[in-house]
Write a structure and sequence with these properties.
alpha/beta; Nucleotidyltransferase, domain 5; 7-stranded mixed sheet; 5-stranded mixed sheet; 12 helices; 12 strands
Length: 383
């Protein structure tokens, strides 16, 4: 067995709320120890620029092009990731000896049917910044981890299931379970022992709720699900929205952040709802989309473990339990990290990439064979 490496993961998800930084020690198969995790929240102007970048990315056909505001957004995103790392090392100077850093970048477009996925982030520029922050021989940077999967015909998402499988090994005897990440888009992993995990995006998670609130109020999200709890779900609207063909396709499958925007605008009638009812109905849609996956799984899961920003939404958690009939717990409740789990996953994936291990599988992204990925930039190449 290879020795564990000290690894940091950097993740900025489709909720566009900031950058997560997390450290683990891993050999790419198991997790030897968990280090600290921190979230560095985007300033409002940074978040707004990222929303504009997503809008400008809609017509892209070349993943290397940076039309419109995208070039500026990439520079700013890379700079913010460097600042997040610097802040992390300032608080935890002992971890400047980190050996590998996994850098996800900021997804602005995901069109696997066109073999196209775009994550903003200048890997060489961040590698140069990392060189000045780390000690010893420096850290290897692994980035652009989705591209190889998409180029090979896979969905390019989700990539975290192999990390979910590693974590599940620490929960005792194998039992079928689901691990759900609730970011802008939801994604779920079915784990049962050491078999290849089964995974897919489930549907909208926080993105539609956040965007609806942004249009109606000055609130960035529904904190603790309080607004949804005060509203009434329009079940007929949820049933109508759940007729979308995506929900009736088996895994693997993936989504762009904005894939359901037009569908919801056309069929939900949100303009006629008050804010609380609109938020409640969109929250119920997020829960129902997770429930729709159960029909495609080999066995009924015994537990649903929830991570990501949506795990703090108590109303969404209650709806998940009601619509799945499965025990729902947060990642924190099983000894994992609700907020840092996805960043940890990209640290884990970076180590796997260094060792040539698969990041994705036919059962997780639809890639033809288990496939590694990522661009590897070692310390001597960062100049």
């Amino acid at each position: 067995m290879d020795r564990p490496l000290m690894a940091i993961g950097l993740m900025s998800g489709t909720s566009l709320d900031g950058i997560d930084v997390a450290l683990i020690e891993t050999d790419g198969e198991t997790v030897a120890s968990f280090g600290p995790g921190r979230t560095y929240v985007y300033a409002p102007e940074t978040r707004e620029l990222m929303f504009r970048a997503i809008s400008d990315a809609r017509e892209m056909t070349d993943r290397h092009a940076r039309p419109g505001i995208l070039a500026r957004a990439e520079r700013l995103s890379t700079e913010r990731h460097g600042q997040a790392l610097a802040a992390f090392f300032k608080e935890f100077p002992a971890y400047r000896e980190v050996e590998v850093i996994g850098y996800h970048g900021q997804t602005v477009l995901h069109r696997p049917e066109m073999r196209l996925t775009v994550q903003l982030g200048d890997g060489p520029a961040l590698a140069r910044a990392v060189r000045g922050m780390t000690t010893g021989s420096g850290a290897t940077l692994v980035y652009d981890m989705r591209a190889a999967d998409v180029a090979a015909g896979g969905q390019g998402a989700p990539l975290v299931p192999v990390y979910h499988r590693a974590l599940a090994r620490g929960l005792g005897p194998p039992k079928p379970l689901l691990v759900l990440n609730l970011g802008g888009v939801g994604n779920v992993t079915y784990v049962d022992g050491m078999a290849d995990p089964i995974a897919c995006d489930t549907g909208p998670a926080n993105a539609l709720i956040d965007d609806f609130l942004k249009a109606r109020t000055d609130l960035p999200f529904d904190e603790d699900g309080v607004i949804a709890a005060s509203g009434k779900v329009d079940e007929k609207v949820v049933d109508t929205l759940m007729t979308h063909p995506f929900f009736h396709r088996p895994p693997p499958k993936s989504l762009d952040r904005n894939d359901f925007r037009a569908w919801v605008h056309e069929h939900a009638g949100l303009d006629a709802m008050n804010t609380a009812d609109g938020v409640a109905t969109l929250t119920a849609l997020s829960a129902a989309s997770v429930g729709a996956v159960l029909a495609f799984l080999p066995a009924r899961p015994t537990r649903l473990i929830v991570a990501g920003g949506g795990a703090h939404n108590a109303t969404l958690l209650r709806m998940l339990a009601a619509r799945t009939g499965i025990e729902v717990v947060t990642a924190d409740e099983v000894g994992w990290s609700t907020d840092a789990l996805e960043a940890q996953a990209f640290a884990f994936l970076a180590v796997r990439a260094l060792r040539g291990l698969p990041l994705s599988f036919p059962t997780t992204t639809g890639v033809p064979v288990p496939l590694t990925g990522g661009i590897i930039r070692r310390p001597g190449e960062a100049a």
